[in-house]
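Cytochrome bc1 complex Rieske iron-sulfur subunit: structure, please.
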Amino acid sequence: MTSQDNMSEEHLPEAAGGHGTVAVHGGAFADPGLPPHEPRRTDIDERAAKRAERQVALWFVLSMLATVAFIACYVIFKPGPQSANTVYIWPIGDVSKLNFGLGISLGVSLFSIGAGAVHWARTLMSDEEHISERHPVEATPAVREQVFADFRQGAKESGFGRRKLIRNTMIGAMAVFPLSAVVLFRDLGPLPEKKLIHTAWVKGMRLKNMNTGEPIKASDIEVGSLTFAMPENLSEDDEDFQERIAKDAVMLVRLQPEDIKDKRSADWGYNGVLAFSKICTHVGCPISLYEQQTHHVLCPCHQSTFDLSDGARVIFGPAGHPLPQLAINVDGNGNLQALGDFSAPVGPGFWERSE
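Here you go.
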């Protein structure tokens, strides 16, 4: 006797709440159906329903007021780092009044809409349970055949396949139409042109200490030390300082000449002083951790590790390219100066990346 021989079915009367049969090994048990519906207080008490209605309306009114507050914050508060435009929020610290006001008001507006909708659904909308019996969703062969026949008939009547001029020009129009969006996107801002490839470093530009702002002499760099530098024409008071330092920042390291494994890297340095981009080639984080004995630098964001003694090649982590190197020598006063731009675009790779 098979297991199917031990299975039986019991048909339940509709009045008993049954919706089919349940077969189990060795017998059958009754489908319990749905439990008796229990009305909510708002279903039987009109005063409670009115109170719930007012509560839902209150949430929606709060959302409208928050939206008005959002617009008011946008008009009243001005962006900028000035102290007049910031507010102290514990434990965050100083926060822009504009950002704080926009964030709070928009959050309250969205939350109030959601809270009102949820309260409406739980207290006033119908909560009657209904069962929908499962049924096949696949169309019958006759319906599918009719759909295909109607499509073929419509294509024939339209002359789409026969009138090639109309067909080809229509396809051309649909292909060209998206170009209008390209024009709109172009108007969103200036093209980057060569800004993604080149930095401010040019031949003859001196390197200055990022902390002191003074020119850096080769004799100031000790073996095993790491020094951060930037172009001499860059100042923290410049309006575009953050934009420029994100590409122009340099780290200087001095190695014993015999420790430098890459010949080109040695040729681009000066008496063991090497200059590399400070910007990680993974996602653009500033590199700041240096292991003196191994000559490795570590990106604190995702632990990409570069060997400065071997052309700053990647030895660990998600970075895909070595750190670009800056060719340097000294001027008549012994100050370090660049011989041109970096050996490759700074920061994360983009598209096929020009070398």
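Notes: Residues 34 and 130 are 9 Å apart (CA to CA).
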